[in-house]
Amino acid sequence: MYLLFLALLALPSGQAASPGHSWGYSGSKGEESWPKNYEFCGGVYQSPVDFHQNILQYDSTLQPIKLSGYNVSSTDSFTLSNNGHTVQMSLVPTMKIEIEPFHYTASQLHLHWGQKSTPKGSEHCIEGKRFAGEVHVVHYNSDKYADLSTAMKESDGLAVLGILIEVGSFNPTFEKIISQIQNIRFKNQKIQIAGFGVRELLPERLDEYYRYEGSLTTPPCYPSVLWTVFRNPVIISEEQLIALETALYCTDSNSSEPVEMTNNYRQLQSHGERLVSVSFREGLVLTIALACLLAVLVIMAFTCLLIRTKRSSRKPSDNRNVAYTVAAGVEENTSKV
Ligand SMILES: *[C@@H]1O[C@H](CO)[C@@H](O)[C@H](O)[C@H]1NC(C)=O
Ligand SMILES: *[C@@H]1O[C@H](CO)[C@@H](O)[C@H](O)[C@H]1NC(C)=O
Ligand SMILES: [Zn+2]
């Protein structure tokens, strides 16, 4: 009995000694099973989240994101790789961002996407809307920590920029990545590509964004990320999106059961007690105003309906009186706005 107990204990710890449990986005290794091997995935401060009205708060102190070294020379190079979960581009340590009070050094960027038949694969959503895809530019707090792997376990360790992707016109900067993915279709394949201006992968406006404290969206899900998700998406063409959705595999080139790399996004996580700060106000105010207007219109419509119903059940001689009531009702509702 005792021996059996020991044997049962030995099994999981033996597995834990291996470099990492495999995980995916569907099937038995899908995200429901992540917390079994990665406890933080079942914990608090998880990402992604939906950005919706009642958890947003305007913060006038949020400054535009300050980039430095983002215009990488073509004499430098990036390594583009298929890591079995996404396509990842290693960045150079001269690329940095500043979010007061810390400087963060860039480490890598990678993408999340859906599938050709359901081309919606962003991780963060806005008012419940999922975008076509999302880019994450991962940085670590280099004022406090020596490298990414140390920083990722600390609550103030990482800063990730999230860029939503929408379909529209051809994007020549994204093409520098997308034109190369045919060369890294299988897990563990990699190639070198020439440096370029990574700023061009970001939206025009760096002053409008959502900011909150969350986590890595993949195992081990450490709650160490200061998230900045830009309000405006970047645009790529439908052909470019389809190339991303169809070229890659999670499995290596030998695999007898190839798994397509699609829908590599995590489900929305509960925001719990968290609020999301927003750096912009116009648009938010407009949305609230529109919601109020809609509410007033609905109330007015009901009032009218109610009065009509009453009116039709009254004698014609009461008409003048009723008309006065309608006007008074409208006035009262309007003054509440
Ligand atoms: C980026 O650097 C290249 C030369 O390496 C230069 O021609 C270009 O103007 C720079 N772009 C920006 C936005 O600074
Ligand atoms: C393909 O399979 C062989 C034999 O199992 C293995 O030695 C080799 O490393 C595999 N190649 C790749 C790219 O995984
Ligand atoms: Zn990501």
From TrEMBL:
Its cofactor is Zn(2+). It holds the Pfam family Carb_anhydrase. InterPro entries: CA_dom, CA_dom_sf, Carbonic_anhydrase_a-class, Carbonic_anhydrase_a-class_CS. Residues 1-16 form the signal peptide. It catalyses: hydrogencarbonate + H(+) = CO2 + H2O. GO terms for molecular function: carbonate dehydratase activity; zinc ion binding. Its EC number is 4.2.1.1. PROSITE patterns: ALPHA_CA_1, ALPHA_CA_2. It comes from the Eukaryota. Gene3D superfamilies: Alpha carbonic anhydrase. GO terms for cellular component: plasma membrane. Residues 21-280 form the Alpha-carbonic anhydrase domain. Belongs to the alpha-carbonic anhydrase family. Reversible hydration of carbon dioxide. This is Carbonic anhydrase. It comes from Xenopus laevis (African clawed frog).
